[in-house]
Amino acid sequence: MKAIIWGSCGSLPSPTSSASIRQKVRDAIWGARTEKFEKREDIDRYLETLPHSARGTYKANTSCVQIVADTDEYIFCDAGTGLRDFALSLGKKPSVATYHIFISHLHWDHIQGFPFFTPAYLPGNRIIFHGFHKETERAIRAQMQAPCFPVPFEAMQATIEFDIKENGANFNVGNVHVSTIKQQHPGDSWGYCFQEREKRIIFSSDSEHGPEARNAGYPFVDFFKNADVLIFDGQYTFEEATNEKRNWGHSDHITAVELSARAKVRQLIVFHHEPAYTDAEIEDIHKDALSYSAEYNQQLSNHANKPTYPQRIELAFDGLEIEA
Ligand SMILES: [Zn+2]
Ligand SMILES: [Zn+2]
């Protein structure tokens, strides 16, 4: 099983400006002034030595993650603008398919890619929204109503179903079992754990963890337990999350590290980036979290040679693929 990030930016799409691209190119050329390039591959090797902020971006599309499992049916978390990039990757004549879209919640950044999801316009396709918000169908239809969008929901010729359950319910897609947890977020949100055989990938975005997260028995430690991959809302710095942005419904990099270490998560992927930060600023916050992870693991274990968790901490970016 693996996860593919199609959209990782929080709140709204945040395309890189021409000025920012120019600065990245200028810095990269300056950094290469003593390098010798004979083949194009030499340039690729040089680019690999640069931080991701210098040769790419963390912020482009809004929330959309594909879960690739041993099934012909497609599985997604959220329908932000990343869903459109997935649709483009299918090419001009995609074959008929079934798409499962697990919705964390209905804020715009988590549904706004759906009107641009071309498989929805093709007869024969089947799309099933799974989730917990009673207003899911209304919200999906409403964002396509005039005067806000030129094409009505009714123009979509795929079969579109809404599988809305009561809190606490689980789902199954083929051999993938999906357990769920209600999260703290304005209007509520839900996290999803996808399990196939012994592998587990958890998508937990738009979820605030207040001071109670440090209590023994905090339910998310149990939900995240031994996950192979945890995709976690780290929009803020710890200072922001605990002060001026308290109760805004998002978490931070430090809490991501602590909960992952306590739950023995193998790979932590920090997701839902703050659009107001530059790529370099997001990387700086991440570096602090990496050093805190070593310190926190020492606090957790009383003697050396204990394994540390998470074993990998990475920032999500569009195009990142993570094997469970
Ligand atoms: Zn969001
Ligand atoms: Zn939200």
Give an overview in words.
It is a single chain. The chain has 324 residues and is α/β, with parallel strands linked by helices. It is 26% helix and 23% strand. It has 2 domains: 2-16 and 57-323, 4-Layer Sandwich (Metallo-beta-lactamase, Chain A), CATH 3.60.15.10; 19-53, no CATH class. The strands form 2 sheets. Strands 6-5-4-3-2-1-14 form a 7-stranded mixed beta sheet. A 7-stranded mixed beta sheet has the order 7-8-9-10-11-12-13. A hairpin with a 2-residue loop joins β7 (171-173) and β8. The N and C termini lie close together (6 Å). The structure holds zinc ion (2 copies).
The CATH topology of the largest domain is given as Metallo-beta-lactamase, Chain A
CATH class of the largest domain: Alpha Beta
Named at the architecture level, the CATH assignment of the largest domain is: 4-Layer Sandwich
What is the approximate shape? globular
Radius of gyration: 20 Å
Number of strands: 14
Total DSSP helices: 9
Q: Beta fraction of the residues?
A: 15-25%
Unreliable stretches, pLDDT < 50, 5 or more residues? none
How can the largest sheet be summarized?
7 strands, mixed
Q: Which homologous superfamily in CATH is the superfamily of the largest domain?
A: Ribonuclease Z/Hydroxyacylglutathione hydrolase-like
Ligand identities: zinc ion
- Which sequence of SSEs, written as H and E, runs from N to C? EHHHEEHEEHEEEEEHEHHEHEE
Mean pLDDT, nearest integer? 96
Class inferred from helices and paired strands? alpha/beta
Helix content: 25-40%
Distance between the termini: 6 Å
InterPro entries: Metallo-B-lactamas, RibonucZ/Hydroxyglut_hydro
Protein name: MBL fold metallo-hydrolase
Pfam families: Lactamase_B_2
Organism: Thalassobacterium sedimentorum
